[in-house]
Fold Fasciclin domain-containing protein.
Amino acid sequence: MSMWSVRRHYCRGAWLFGLLLSMLMLLPGQAEAQSLLDAARADGHYHWFLRAVRETELEKALSQLSAVTLLAPTDAAFEAMDEEERSKLFSLRNRDRLLDVLNLHIIERDLSLNQALQIGMVGSRQGQALHFETRGDSVTVNGAKVDGAIAHTAQGRLYGLNQVLLPSL
């Protein structure tokens, strides 16, 4: 075998190895290894939500849930709130209220949007009902637009919301 043949054979083998390695990295089980909060961090549009999770010490409880649907308000949703209301919500003396707000965004089962729409009304971790419906081309939950699936991991699903849902008093 000539040097040129060996080199061509080696390059073809390296290319095939690279292709197989890339395909393995895209297998569903590999992408599902991260938590929903890791997916929110990686997305980069959930800093306020992640801050709320940290400040209420909800991260450990969330990490222990194995089938969850997380409806996370985007940074734009938090920034659209009245600044005084947002500051009050994040104040130290309102931690219980902030925890209620976060728990309203958690469903303790893994639901696709189609499943949620078929059911129509789903209970949140906070206890209040979440109403899923279609409005035009959009899916809404309690009037907030769902921005589609951000992540589907072994832990569940993460969806973005364009509004912060507030529990009824």
Summary: The chain has a mean pLDDT of 85.
